[in-house]
Amino acid sequence: MHLVLFGPPGAGKGTQGTVLAEKRGLTKISTGDILRDAARAGTELGLKARKFMDAGELVPDSVILGLVREVIEDSGNSGFIMDGFPRTIPQAEGVDQMLREMKKVIDAVVVLDVPNEALVQRLSGRRSCPNCGAVYNVYYDKPKQDEKCDRCGSELVQRADDKRDTVARRLDVYKQQTSPIIDYYQQHGADVHFINGDRGIDDVLRDILQIVDR
Ligand code: AP5
């Protein structure tokens, strides 16, 4: 199974992609995670990418396509889930070309639909623990003690691009530069599915599994 998990920032691509990868033995390819790891490691690529990410802008296509080629090649014959990629038409064209060369195809595209107000609440309220990775939301899933992790007591942090203004910019960039990819896939005959992502995590997962397990 080669699946594209598509949707605006905060739609739940990462959350669903992680569980799906675990349940079905697929490789999750998250360009956001790869870029954040590179930024934390202080590599040249990571430092360059961080400027774009912190401003809510997209990292240039040439950088992203090189990164993804490596991960797809490394995934060998296991299936994969692409989370947060492709994000522009040139990236969608680039990955199509890459997959043709590798004799692979995208089997399905799942679009997670979530209204903007919910996205803003999910992202601007998100806090995470830098020590154990636990995720909270100050609006609907608060830690017991303000800004401290319930599991390990570490000080919670906010992703730099989850500040309200940057969230607004990310949503705008999604609308302008990323959402046209849905038309691209429909016009190229891909198997596109729209799923209501504004429900509990398990309900959304059940619908995606129906597509993956057909
Ligand atoms: P990336 O890391 O891909 O972030 P994003 O897509 O903007 O947004 P998120 O990862 O925050 O959202 P998500 O849809 O994965 O939702 P999640 O499951 O986390 O990209 C970051 C930046 O990197 C970009 O802005 C860009 O600069 C750069 N970049 C990355 N890829 C690129 C590319 N291909 N080209 C160019 N630049 C690129 O959930 C969000 C929150 O909601 C969590 O707190 C979660 O717990 C909660 N949640 C999830 N599901 C539910 C639910 N059903 N109900 C309630 N809460 C939920």
Spell out the blueprint of helices and strands.
Layout: E1 2-6, H1 13-24, E2 27-30, H2 31-41, H3 44-54, H4 61-74, E3 80-83, H5 89-101, E4 108-113, H6 116-124, E5 126-128, E6 135-137, H7 164-178, H8 180-187, E7 192-196, H9 201-212
Helix pairs in contact: 1-9, 2-3, 4-5, 6-7
The chain binds BIS(adenosine)-5'-pentaphosphate.
Would you kindly provide a written description of the structure presented here, covering whatever features stand out?
With 214 residues, the chain is an alpha/beta fold. It has a domain at 2-26 and 79-114 and 171-212: Rossmann fold, CATH 3.40.50.300. The protein is built from nine helices and seven strands, in the order E-H-E-H-H-H-E-H-E-H-E-E-H-H-E-H. The chain has helices at 13-24, 31-41, 44-54, 61-74, 89-101, 116-124, 164-178, 180-187, 201-212; strands at 2-6, 27-30, 80-83, 108-113, 126-128, 135-137, 192-196. It binds BIS(adenosine)-5'-pentaphosphate (AP5).
Could you name the key traits of this structure?
214 residues, alpha/beta, Rossmann fold, five-stranded parallel β-sheet, two-stranded antiparallel ribbon, 7 strands, 49% helix, globular, binds BIS(adenosine)-5'-pentaphosphate
CATH architecture of the domain at 2-26 and 79-114 and 171-212: 3-Layer(aba) Sandwich
The CATH C-level class name of the domain at 2-26 and 79-114 and 171-212 = Alpha Beta
Distance between the first and last residues' Cα: 10 Å
| Helix percent band | 40-55%
Work out the strand percent. 5-15%
The oligomeric status of these chains comes to: single chain
Question: Which structural category do the helix and sheet elements fall into?
Answer: alpha/beta
Given the C-alpha coordinates, what overall shape results? globular
Tell me, rounded to a whole number, the average pLDDT: 94
Biggest sheet overview: 5 strands, parallel
Distinct compounds present: BIS(adenosine)-5'-pentaphosphate
Can you tell me the CATH superfamily of the domain at 2-26 and 79-114 and 171-212? P-loop containing nucleotide triphosphate hydrolases
How many beta-strand elements? 7
**Unreliably modeled segments:** none
Number of helices: 9
Strands in their spatial order, largest beta sheet: 2-3-1-4-7
